[in-house]
Specification:
The complex is a heterodimer of chains A (397) and B (144). Chain A has 397 residues and is of the alpha+beta class. Chain A has two domains: 3-47 and 257-396, no CATH class; 63-242, no CATH class. Chain A contains 13 helices and eleven strands. In chain A, strands 6-7-5-8-4-3-10-1-11 form a nine-stranded mixed sheet, sandwiched between helices. Chain B has 144 residues and is mainly α. Chain B has one domain (2-26, 42-131). Chain B is built from four helices and two strands; from the N terminus they run αββααα. Chain B has helices spanning 2-23, 43-67, 71-95, 105-131, and strands at 32-33, 39-40. Chain B has a two-stranded antiparallel ribbon. In chain B, α2 (43-67) packs antiparallel against α3 (71-95). Chain B is elongated and about 65 Å long. Chain B starts with a helix and ends in a 13-residue tail after the last helix. Classes of the chains: A alpha+beta (397), B mainly alpha (144). The interface between A and B is medium-sized, with 14 and 14 residues.
């Protein structure tokens, strides 16, 4: 009988002990992986959403910062306006290279004239736009014509011929953008001309008209000149253009970043509590098992088994249990995060994007190693102690 | 092992049967209004009702697994459990489905709960079938 067979016999012969050790490894692996996937998924999504915006500074009406972040990150419909003349004022600020307006709209709630309820919509100016164009060019090299729209990753056509009903008018969905895990995935993008066309036809076709105040825009995207200090340009905008608030790209989504930081602290604290408890519990279980099995192991030593053989069999037993427990824990964590990601996004108020297969494999490997290392560490001391005992003394006790 | 797997199967059967009552759109006051003004339940509600038909054999198989001793009985319980769990997965995904809007409560909560329970019940049933396998080698003296 080799030490692997001995370990397997010991596992199958001690049901309760095996379950306790495997469950401890399961909890450590599942919690570590769930926490890591959640935090990394949220951080990646935040970065992607900021990158998708593509502006160095987003200028919104003063007081509308939170609403703007809620719209862009969580897809909550937003409506705020500022004079279009701010475009010229902003373009004149030193360090500003380009400006482009955007109008934020939303479909009606539970109305038959709209395919989706409370859908966030962004109208952009194709002549001056520099934020959406790079993304649109990947899917639509020719750009969007009047009556055409492009959707986030979740948007799908609900009417024949790729149609979506918006304020009683059917617009054509020409493509979808890459997923970001943020509210942009459930938003619709079209040109200002399409927005105006929808506003005009909505007076006849929709339950309520779509109102776009004349000479007003919701936000202005600002691109700074190469080498310009973005923070200084933002301060200059705040000083020279009244009634607006500039948000530098590094400061975007501050509330979500703060939420993420508190989440990270919670995960770290929980892990700091959980890990030593799991190691202590497994250590205690193995210490008890080693004491229980003193005579049995003493007999093995008397029959010629070496100290190394005894220690190896105990550590193999621990590693096998850790591997099984961690594998189940990892499966449960991945399943939970994959299936419940929308619930997590809604409950925590942070965007979330599933990691790429490569990144997921790496995180799974780390979770598995962590759980196995925990059990190995916990079982090491009892294994050494029991392997060093004198067989004659052990069998007499 | 069969007692643990049986217990898990009963637990997941209870989740499959009960969870839709609290997580479908109707339980959150969302219903379809027809042209004549009547309110009717959306398809997630019917998927939830149909789940009971998958949960009952799964639960019974779990009880059999908990108290059965013969390998044949355990294997049969595992096969019934796996088939029912598979049905529990297919009902809200392919056979009936849930509401179209991905942000509705049935898609956010009911569907993931049913899928998670179905997948875990499937794994438990598969583990039960594996543990109830006949020995690979015939006992000494039986071989021809």
């Amino acid at each position: 009988m080799n030490f692997l067979q001995l370990a397997w016999k010991s596992i199958s012969g001690n049901g309760l002990r095996s379950w306790v050790v495997a469950l401890s490894a399961l909890v450590v692996a599942a919690f570590a992986l769930f926490g890591t996937l959640l935090l990394r998924g949220a951080a990646t999504s935040l970065e992607l959403a900021a990158e998708r915006l593509g502006a160095d500074i987003v200028v919104v009406p003063d007081g509308a910062q939170t609403e703007m972040e809620g719209a862009l990150l969580m897809g909550h419909p937003a409506s705020f306006w500022m004079p279009e003349e701010n475009l010229q004022k902003l373009a004149a600020v030193p360090g500003v290279e380009a400006v482009s307006p955007q109008v934020y709209l939303a479909t009606l709630v539970g109305a038959a004239c709209c395919s989706a309820s409370e859908m966030f919509m962004v109208a952009y100016d194709p002549q001056s736009d520099f934020t959406l164009r790079p993304w649109l060019e990947k899917t639509l090299p020719g750009g969007l014509a009047e009556g055409e729209v492009v959707g986030g990753d979740f948007i799908s056509a609900t009417e024949p011929n790729d149609g979506i009903l918006v304020y009683g008018t059917t617009v054509r969905l020409t493509g979808n953008l890459e997923p970001t895990g943020s509210g942009l995935d459930q938003s619709l993008f079209f040109t200002m001309d399409t927005a105006r066309q929808l506003a005009v036809s909505s007076w006849v076709n929709a339950e309520e008209p779509l109102i776009i105040p004349p000479d007003q825009v919701s936000a202005i995207m600002v691109k700074t000149t190469p080498g310009a200090d973005v923070e200084k340009v933002a301060v200059e905008i705040l000083r020279t253009v009244p009634g607006v608030f500039p948000v530098a790209s590094a400061d975007l989504f501050q509330s979500s970043r703060a939420q993420l930081k508190s989440l990270l602290n919670t995960v770290v604290i929980m892990m700091a509590l959980l890990w030593p408890i799991a190691i202590a519990l497994i250590g205690m279980v193995y210490l008890m098992a080693a004491n229980e099995r003193r005579r049995e192991l003493g007999m093995l030593r008397a029959l010629g088994a070496t100290k190394r053989f005894i220690a190896q069999s105990l550590l193999t037993e621990a590693s096998l249990l850790a591997l099984c427990g961690a594998a189940v824990g990892i499966f449960v964590a991945v399943l939970a995060i994959y299936l419940f990601r929308r619930l997590i996004i809604n409950s925590l108020g942070v965007p979330f994007l599933l990691p790429s297969p490569g990144s997921l494999a790496l995180q799974i490997a780390i979770g598995l190693l962590l759980a196995m290392a925990s059990v190995f560490l916990a079982a090491l001391l009892p294994a050494i102690k029991v392997s060093r005992q004198d067989p004659a003394v052990a069998m007499r006790e | 092992m069969n007692k643990v797997m049986g217990g898990l199967m009963v637990l997941f059967a209870l989740v499959l049967a009960i969870a839709p009552a609290f997580t479908d759109c109707q339980s959150h006051g969302k219903m379809l209004t027809t042209a004549d003004g009547r309110s009717i339940a959306m398809k997630c509600h019917w998927a939830g009702i149909a789940e009971i038909a998958a949960a009952v054999p799964l639960g019974l198989a779990g009880i059999y697994a908990m108290f059965g001793r013969r390998k044949d009985t355990l294997r049969f319980a595992g096969i019934v459990g796996a088939s029912s769990a598979l049905m529990g997965i297919l009902l809200p995904t392919i056979l009936i489905g849930t509401c179209a809007n991905p942000s509705m409560i049935c898609n956010v909560l009911m569907r993931p709960t049913l899928l998670a329970s179905g997948i875990l019940a499937l794994v438990s049933s598969a583990a039960l079938i594996m543990t109830a396998r006949e020995p690979q080698f015939a006992p000494a003296g039986v071989a021809a």
